[in-house]
Known about the structure:
Blueprint: H1 2-12, H2 16-39, E1 47-51, H3 58-65, H4 78-86, E2 91-99, E3 103-110, E4 113-119, E5 122-127, E6 132-136, H5 144-147, E7 151-153, H6 162-173, H7 176-179, E8 182-187, E9 193-197, E10 202-206, H8 211-221, E11 228-230
Parallel strand pairs: 1-3, 7-8, 10-11
Antiparallel strand pairs: 2-3, 4-5, 5-6, 8-9, 9-10
Amino acid sequence: xxxxxxxxxxxxxxxxxxxxxxxxxxxxxxxxxxxxxxxxxxxxxxxxxxxxxxxxxxxxxxxxxxxxxxxxxxxxxxxxxxxxxxxxxxxxxxxxxxxxxxxxxxxxxxxxxxxxxxxxxxxxxxxxxxxxxxxxxxxxxxxxxxxxxxxxxxxxxxxxxxxxxxxxxxxxxxxxxxxxxxxxxxxxxxxxxxxxxxxxxxxxxxxxxxxxxxxxxxxxxxxxxxxxxxxxxxxxxx
Length: 238
């Protein structure tokens, strides 16, 4: 019985030639499908979807993208499209993906405006990365949303400045009620940050750590009549 089963298994096992033929057919099929996808107009760009925009105009994204309508998706240089869209000042990051059978999807991440800053004789809007991506002649020219941002006051504002980045961290972490009351955020070092409020009062903030705790401490001490409050160590507040 053992010999007969062994012989039966040998008869059913595909030969090496058969395996090679099947492998070749698979490669040919895959290659054919790829060639069809690469050249066929059935999988060409007919739609361009833009997602993630709030401030940036969707039509500006489409015009800047210069997506080659009618070109097979596999022939589209998605990197070049992403680079073109990323050149829009208010865009922080872009990804472009093919969505078969006929759509390019452009996913935009917009810059997050946090502060305004004096920039080469103009007023610039700075994002969370320290990039000044919009400029206006003076504060009167600022649109309402930019005018509501606190002003950044440091010696050398910019992406490579640790003090700037510390201030931006604080600005991003401020709760809404305090952000609305803050006129400017001043700093001489990453550990020497001060908030100037619309009321004329000042809050010594210290470093960029524990912003939520410091904000709660400030909420309490603002009930006291004083011009300046130190919340740099919120656990030791009065």
